[in-house]
Protein 1
Amino acid sequence: MPGVSFIKVLFLYPIFYYQNCMDAQSGDCFNNDWSNQVAECAGILFKGRFCCEDQISLQINNIVGLKFRFGFTIVKIDSWDPGVDNIKVIAEDEVLDTLSFGPYEGTSMCFNTDYQDLFASYSYMFNLPQGKNSLKITLKGYFNEKVENESWGAKRFTLEMFIPCVEFYSECNFQGQAWRICNGYQTSQVRDIPFEIKSIIIANGIQVKMRNPKYNSGQTQTFTSSQQCLSSYQFPKYNQNG
Ligand SMILES: *[C@@H]1O[C@H](CO)[C@@H](O)[C@H](O)[C@H]1NC(C)=O
Ligand SMILES: [Ca+2]
Ligand SMILES: [Ca+2]
């Protein structure tokens, strides 16, 4: 029988794909995800302070999924004018929300003592179109005064996958023809992939099992992370008419 004897995908659900700057004094607040600026309010570290038209983004490559949930905590500092000053939450090109607060919302915790400060958590479900294997999330501010008067920050960034996929490629490094299996969309056990598999995107928490009598002594091979180049493990080309 030509081609892969079988491929079986086990999806765990949901997948906690990413988190950053979760706790009051998390060391990873100082990594360069989103921004290398870090500030503190009432003993709590966050990425900031930002003002004016600052925006911060996370670009994730080699990610395949159809439904995600993005969460974060906004840090509102000092004198925001409601309806004027705001932060937009953007996934790819879609604005998921526009956040606005007043100057006296919250309690006086840091920086200008005349104006109150606030930590507030949000999360958003969104879909990524079929065929995309990268994701950009952006927080984009608009503030018309300087950072001493009004500013913002963010922390507790999380990204969960609600419909994860596995994507197989005909070339190394996730290039060439692509073929994907998504959780709940197709059978998790398939017998034919229409090309020789050279690389696979597999998120943490997903297991891909493959077996072919001619390879690995016919033993089932289990992959639990992305495979950049399966040069030593080439499947025979799938013959469409075979
Ligand atoms: C900052 O706030 C002060 C005091 O309310 C105000 O006089 C000043 O104009 C503000 N700065 C800017 C750039 O708007
Ligand atoms: Ca304040
Ligand atoms: Ca303002």
Protein 2
Amino acid sequence: MYVHASSLYGMELSTTEALGENQSILAPMNSSSTITVAVTGASGLLGRPLLALLESDSRYRARGAAWSRAGGNLDRIDITDPAAVNAWLYEVKPDVLVHLAAERRPDVYAEDPEAADRLNIDATEALAISCAAREVNLIFLSTNYVFDGTSSPYLPDDETNPLNDYGRGKLAGEQSVTAASGKHRVLRVPMLYGSSGNLEESSVTVLARAFLDSDGPVLLDVRQTRYPAYAPDLAVAIVGLLPGLAEGSLPGPILHISPGEPFTKRDMGEIIASLVGADPSRAVADERPPTGAPRPEEVQLACPNLEAMGLIKTTPFREAIRVSLESIREAGGLSPE
Ligand SMILES: NC(=O)c1ccc[n+]([C@@H]2O[C@H](COP(=O)([O-])OP(=O)(O)OC[C@H]3O[C@@H](n4cnc5c(N)ncnc54)[C@H](OP(=O)(O)O)[C@@H]3O)[C@@H](O)[C@H]2O)c1
């Protein structure tokens, strides 16, 4: 079966093309059944391509929830309100749930950790328990920031040691998810980027801002190494996991997904500068310790399970960031502020 996702990629590309010849992971559990998938955080950077991919695939019936950007095909559900979540689960009757809703910005998290904990820890725990009671298997998106970066690359079972409140909150969310059901799964991912209406939605695309707003050198960190992941690539992998999640047959409980291409912010800035019409030599190495919430210097996620399943397919950074910036340009988001 070919699932066209051209709107996600800005090019003609299907799930099958994205994943190559390994068709087994795309085979439906039961060709006569449809899997009903509920997605929290469906208005976000990853939620949008995931929901679009599910809606384009006849094997799935998808329902997305959002909060401030709800409307259209997105239900307005405050996931910190257990009664609202339970009513939504009762109505949707999902077979599986993909839990994306979160506060994912470490600096914002650090400003009000109690509020962020209510979303990332308390709401996650309540959702995991409600899903387990309904025999709905859940996959929870977590972060490479659960590690401290001192012994990269990391396998799923390696020791965690988050350096910031966001990583601590995600680790607590992971623990409540895995405690609630042996069939729930955690998927850790690195920093994301993708199509958007504005540069600020991703810590990758936001690097363009300084090139657009000034003419001089742009100092960019070279101490931290990142493995930026293109959100539509992750959406394809998550869809590939859903039949196994529904059956309760996925390895786990913790899974990793990551591209293998390492970049510093300066490396990304050089490429991004050239794509927004700026001189790439304006991207200058900043050797000083970064400010803000502490972040690990290098966390590469080793992905043995998803590699074995044929689910790691990565659009090259230069191509994926070009498509992402093009979407932002079309939305009018590349103007100087
Ligand atoms: N982005 C990254 O670089 C990154 C890196 C590692 C892991 N992750 C993880 O991957 C997942 C997806 O990230 P993302 O970048 O797609 O996130 P995002 O773009 O920041 O979107 C966050 C989502 O959470 C929803 N949300 C926030 N508060 C809510 C509430 N009270 N009730 C219901 N929904 C609420 C938002 O809805 P509205 O916008 O409609 O309010 C939005 O859909 C997250 O779990 C994140 O922690 C992300």
